[in-house]
Amino acid sequence: MTVKANRSIDNEVVIIGGGLAGGAAATMMAQAGCRVLLFERESAPSHKICGEFLSAEAKQYLVRIGLDVDALGGHVISRLRLVRGASMVEAPLPFHGLGLSRRVLDNALLEHAIDCGADVRRSRDVRVLKTASGVEIDVEKFGRWAPNTLLLANGKHDLRGLRREPVKPVEDLVGFKTYFRLDATQTQALRESVEVIVFPCGYAGLQLVESGRANLCLLVDRAQLQRSGGTWDGLLRDLLRDCAHLRQRLTGATPLLDRPLAIYRVPYGFVHASKESDLPHVYRLGDQAAVIASFSGDGMAIALHSAALAVQSHRSRRGAHYYHQRLSADVAAQLARASALYRLGRSAPGQAMLIPVARAWPRGLQLAAALTRVSPRAVTRVQRALVQV
Ligand SMILES: Cc1cc2nc3c(=O)[nH]c(=O)nc-3n(C[C@H](O)[C@H](O)[C@H](O)COP(=O)(O)OP(=O)(O)OC[C@H]3O[C@@H](n4cnc5c(N)ncnc54)[C@H](O)[C@@H]3O)c2cc1C
Q1: Which of 87, 138, 178, 197 is the most exposed place for a label (fewest CB within 10 A)?
Q2: At a CB cut-off of 8 Å and minimum separation 6, what does 239 contact?
């Protein structure tokens, strides 16, 4: 039996998901004086699949809403290394990023949202139900009701009852993330760098996060995982056998998680295409709206940009259709470029060219990094507009 709760508070905003998009939107809505109710499925701070490279734009958004990011102890990253087999090329990044674990960052942001006045409820797995007049949400111990404004910030995968329309088939990739304590020499060698290591079957990111741990995050074809016996141990064994660089980095390293986190079928390249028929009060944020190829390291900035834009659109009463169109205009080109680079990096001729081209033209790496980020112009525009609403 469902309970019809009496929740007809005019300016109440309900947010599903307490990741970066949800946490930032909750903070900004609360700062703007709205009543915010955020539901997060996890009961406590938890690890997330992510390379944990926080770009300069992402940091700028977090600082702008009052989060003291530097106090969280991230590792400054100023160089990008591209590695294939035993070959490596390095270039300075066009900005400084941070290696910061999502467990620490997302929790700090949720705590900040609470301090700003948002009502955050953990251990709440929200269901969404379509009705003749719109959508209702169903939350354990809260009941079922139709919020005035609903922000879907529940990440990559669809909410039951409110599926997105994929524009293309989802690739058969499996993602893993784990932490290692590297030995002192390898920790020193990795300092201030993010390494993108390409394999025939996928790619990995390796970088330090706070407390000197190394984050290893990788994406591989599911077929490779099967060839490796269907287990993480088998996959890692095969990757280390075939990649001298990763073998060197992990020699003498201590794994810090009992087992890695895994994810399957991430809809890379997805951008929510808004239609006039979209409900004007239902906003898709972060990975619900746009999913950029992971190696670009800008998914978090897009999540934060979407949160700021949604708050601005809501506060200026422009609504969700305007918001989705604007977001798509701000990020679709970056996503398309990231997908094109990804495809190039996955093809055999593309992989063979990668290191020679990057060596001959090191600025190309910087350009690739710049072309796959939310543009500084869009960030400035949204931040200025936020001040005015
Ligand atoms: C392999 C990989 C590596 C990546 N590396 C990077 C990187 O280095 N840098 C970068 O910037 N980006 C990276 N990204 C992208 C980045 O992780 C995402 O873009 C970002 O996390 C999106 O934030 P979000 O708030 O939209 O979603 P999430 O961070 O996924 O948050 C969604 C939240 O919603 C909650 N939730 C889900 N369903 C429900 C429900 N029904 N009810 C209540 N709560 C719910 C979840 O528990 C979660 O806390 C990577 C992604 C992948 C897959």
Answers
A1: 87
A2: 199, 204, 218, 220, 246
Residue 282 Cα, ligand 1 centroid: separation in angstroms?
A: 19
Give the residues surrounding ligand 1 with Cβ less than 6 Å away: 16-22, 39-42, 48-53, 55, 58, 124-126, 153-155, 159, 175, 217, 219, 263, 266, 286-287, 294, 297-301, 303
273 Cα–ligand 1 center, Å? 20
* Helix, strand, coil % over all residues of the chain, rounded to 5: 40, 25, 35
- HSE at residue 39, side-chain half, CA atoms within 13 A, is 22
Spelled out in words, what is the top-level CATH class assigned to the domain 12-62+100-166+270-344+374-388? alpha beta
Closest listed residue to residue 283, CA positions, set 32, 60, 47, 14: 14
* pLDDT digit string, tens, across residues 319-356: 999 999 999 999 999 999 999 988 888 888 888 888 89
Instruction: Tell me the pLDDT tens digit for each residue of 238-275.
Output: 999 999 999 999 999 999 999 999 999 899 999 998 88
Task: Give the range among 159-168, 181-190, 272-281, 325-334 with minimum mean pLDDT.
Answer: 159-168
